[in-house]
Design goal:
about 170 residues; alpha+beta; 4-stranded mixed β-sheet; 3 helices
Amino acid sequence: MRVPPFERYVKGLQMVGMLILGIIVGAIIYNSLYVARFEALIILKSDLEARLEQYEQDIKNLKQFKNQHTVIKSILPRIEEEAGQKTDRPDLDKMTEAELIKRIKEDLSSFLGQSIYKIDSEAQFARKLLEKKVYTNVYSKDYTIEVKTVLVVDNVLHVWVKVRIYAKPPA
């Protein structure tokens, strides 16, 4: 039996190897683009879900308090951004931020329907309610919040909070 000479196929094998290498590199680049776009889509979806939930809640509250003009009709918590300073504030992604805002709203929902003229006593109550509050298991991390400012404008309770990663005290 005779073995064919492989010297004739060296160039062809090199070309096939380069083709396979190009296919692999192209697949890696395509997959990374696909994953990046899919992650952007997931972030957009969670942001839109949070907005939809907020709008539905606002509509329900506005219908409930439409004839009362001096009450808190909705709550708008905001996470305070600290620009230019080195702090221990974590870099929050949109999903974590939306979940924290949702939980803060649930804690402050007792203020809905309260008179806006009693905001001074309610602000102190909100500070005591949320002072160094720990939110556990928010996407596998624990966060602590601190209320910085409480303000009522146009029947909307605005609450600015500072978020930090919760450091468990030593035992």
